[in-house]
Specification:
The complex is a heterodimer of chains A (about 260) and B (about 350).
Chain A: E1 5-14, E2 17-27, E3 32-36, H1 43-51, E4 58-63, E5 66-67, H2 73-78, E6 81-84, H3 96-100, H4 115-128, H5 145-158, E7 163-167, H6 175-190, E8 194-199, H7 202-208, E9 211-216, E10 219-225, H8 231-255
Parallel strand pairs in A: 3-8, 3-9, 6-7, 7-8
Antiparallel strand pairs in A: 1-2, 1-4, 4-5, 9-10
Helix pairs in contact in A: 5-6
Chain B: H1 20-25, H2 30-46, H3 53-78, H4 86-103, H5 108-133, H6 137-160, E1 164-166, H7 174-182, E2 184-187, E3 190-193, H8 195-212, H9 214-224, H10 226-231, H11 236-262, E4 264-266, H12 273-283, H13 295-314, H14 321-346
Antiparallel strand pairs in B: 1-4, 2-3
Helix pairs in contact in B: 2-13, 3-8, 3-9, 3-11, 3-12, 3-13, 4-5, 4-6, 4-11, 5-6, 5-11, 7-11, 8-9, 9-11, 12-13, 12-14, 13-14
The chains are: A alpha/beta (about 260), B mainly alpha (about 350).
Chain lengths: ~260, ~350
């Protein structure tokens, strides 16, 4: 089976700054590829290449076996690659259904917005994902952070994404809300989507991930299948020796 | 605006019956409607002529010229941008039409067409510069405002030797073009200017576009969060450029109405009007930060302007007081908008 996405020694430089260098990974249908790393590790650069915001200048990037270089996010979308960004997933002042259909609005045969269909489909698509909203006319700004992520995920799934890229979907959320979002990640995976989950929290990545790509300073620190690594090792790899003690202390506090 | 009442699909049991007050409060134009009602009642009581048919014809005409522009500017503001060149553009378009018709002897219709192309080109240039440079539209259009102001005066003086172009009445096609843009119609024995119809028409089209079309949805989205919109495939650059061209089109419409009604145009016309457009849009519920507002609201904002400006004349007060009224009105509108919007976001949380 061809992978949905395959990168081989992919790299990107901004002038003299090497943002990403020699990173290889795959994303398969029905699997979650987690990209882990601290701030500045190159996670954003990697997903921006996958999402069509930036172009790589080294290595090869294949979508369903075909070598590709996207010129815009629209082109990536047309290839079934949808990206949900951490803080700019939605337009806060617009209603849930208008957000849901933004860029792919349903129209009647006269070219006007089909508002009734928009509301019905939104409600249905959200409840299919197990998201139960009271009212799809309320502004997205009135939803909680977790609910907003869920709307954005449901939108990508509904519009036939094959690959879902999630940029730190759990970063700004509380423990319970993060759990809810991870549940939808797993649900998207079970529907046969390939998911790229970007995070700096191994505890969020490990339960849902099939494959773990660790980045540090723009380079791949390691790439593991789930069977090759346990959560302790994953955490150790991510933290690096020096910070480990402090992190363990912190984690003990969480577990207690 | 048309509102079709469709039964909501499978009403959620957690939703109580929506209270009429909450429904009303979510509309951006509600503050302006209340304001308009207050101003209307006030001058109806204080003055004699205000409520007469002749009085209404006067303040409706005043509001219509401002209203056409305010509606276009409101769309641009919802899309997250400003156009400070909108005021002088009304003079520039009139000057282009007048110079072509009187100096080159072009048919008025042809002159209007060239003027329209000119307006759309300036609008596109404004939009392109803003998107290309990434600078705030406030600065970019301040530049084009000054540039146009200079061109208006400079070219007019070069060509005519004065700062005024007149003599439109002799140009071919003046009568027929005048019928479309500057004629009057009778209601109850009183003449109303056709500009009022243009204003209503423009508002209806703009409001339908905003609320009922894909492009309208994009306007709210690019004003609210341009990056998110781009990420889901909304053509942000093209949409914003089209919005700048829309204000330029409205300026052409107002300029054409002016030149065909008065048959002459001053080269320094229109300066300062750009802020009146923005004020009318804000009174109508537009946020300065974009992503929220209404075309109907902006039209009502312009109506408040027209009523107050003429009402003060009818009341026999010095027109200096109009500025004071304007300032107080603007502050009140911003405060009310802020409050209503917070309330709207809190509703049903």
């Amino acid at each position: 089976m061809t992978s949905l996405i395959e990168t081989e020694n992919i790299g990107k430089t901004y002038g003299s700054v090497i943002a990403l260098s020699e990173v290889s990974t795959v994303v398969n249908a029905g699997e979650v590829t987690c990209v882990l790393g601290d701030n500045g590790a190159g996670k954003s650069t990697l997903i921006k290449i996958l999402a069509g915001v930036h172009q790589h200048d080294q290595g090869s990037f294949k979508v369903e076996g075909e070598e590709i270089k996207f010129s815009s996010p629209r082109e990536a979308l047309d290839h079934g690659i949808a990206t949900v960004y951490q803080d700019l997933a939605v337009v806060p002042l617009m209603s849930v259904w208008r957000n849901f259909f933004l860029g792919s609005e349903p129209t009647t045969k006269f070219g006007f917005l089909d508002r009734r269909k928009g509301k019905e489909v939104t409600k249905k698509a959200l409840s299919d994902m197990g998201i139960d909203l009271r009212d799809v006319e309320q502004p997205v700004g009135t939803l909680s952070g977790g609910e907003r992520q869920c709307v954005a995920i449901a939108r990508a799934v509904h519009f036939g994404a094959k690959v879902l890229i999630l940029d730190e979907p759990t970063a700004a959320l509380g423990v319970k809300q993060a759990g809810v979002v991870l549940k939808y990640v797993a649900q998207a995976r079970d529907r046969g989507l390939g998911v790229v989950l970007i995070t700096h929290n191994p505890h969020h990545a490990y339960p849902v991930g099939n494959r773990f790509l660790l980045l540090k300073r723009g380079r791949a620190l390691g790439s593991y299948e789930k069977s090759e690594i346990d959560i302790g090792e994953l955490t150790r790899q991510m933290a690096g020796g020096a910070e480990l003690e402090a992190l363990e202390h912190e984690l003990r506090g969480v577990e207690a | 605006m048309t509102v079709t009442a469709t039964a909501p699909p499978a009403a959620d049991e957690r939703l109580g019956k929506p209270r009429a007050m909450d429904q009303l409060i979510k509309r951006p134009e509600i503050g302006a409607m209340l304001g308009a009602l207050l101003v209307f009642l006030f001058f109806s009581v204080v003055t004699e002529q205000f409520l007469s048919v002749g009085g209404a014809a006067t303040w409706l005409d005043d509001a219509s010229m401002l209203g056409i522009m305010a509606v276009a500017v409101a769309m641009l503001m919802i899309g997250g941008e400003f156009d400070l060149s909108a005021g002088v553009m009304t003079a520039s378009t009139a000057l282009v039409t007048a110079l072509l018709a009187t100096q080159l002897g072009l048919n008025v219709w042809l002159a209007l067409l060239v003027s329209l192309v000119f307006a759309l080109a300036v609008g596109a240039l404004n939009g392109w510069l803003v998107m290309r440079t990434g600078l705030p539209s406030f600065i970019v259009t301040l530049g084009s405002f000054l540039a146009l102001q200079g061109l208006n005066l400079g070219i007019t003086r070069l060509v005519t030797g004065s700062v005024q172009v007149s003599g439109m009445r002799e140009a071919a096609g003046y009568e027929s073009a005048g019928f479309l843009f500057a004629s009057t119609f009778q209601i109850g024995g009183t003449s109303f200017y056709v500009s009022i119809i243009w204003w209503v028409l423009f508002t209806v089209v703009a409001s339908t576009l905003l609320m009922r079309t894909r492009f309208g949805n994009w306007i709210f989205a690019i004003g609210g969060a341009a990056q998110s919109s781009r990420a889901v495939g909304v053509p942000v650059v093209r949409s914003k450029i089209l919005l700048f061209m829309t204000t330029a089109f409205a300026a052409w419409l107002v300029g054409s109405i002016n030149i065909l009604r008065y048959a002459s145009v001053q080269a320094n016309q229109g300066i300062g009007l750009e802020f009146q457009y923005i004020i009318a849009a804000v009174i109508g519920g537009c946020l300065l930060t974009g992503g929220f507002g209404s075309a109907v609201g902006a039209a009502i904002g312009a109506l408040i302007f027209g009523m107050a400006r003429q009402g003060i004349v009818y009341a026999g007060w010095n027109s200096d007081w109009f500025q004071l009224f304007l300032g107080v009105m603007l502050l009140a509108a911003v405060l009310v908008n802020n409050m209503l919007r917070r309330r709207a976001e809190r509703v049903r949380r």
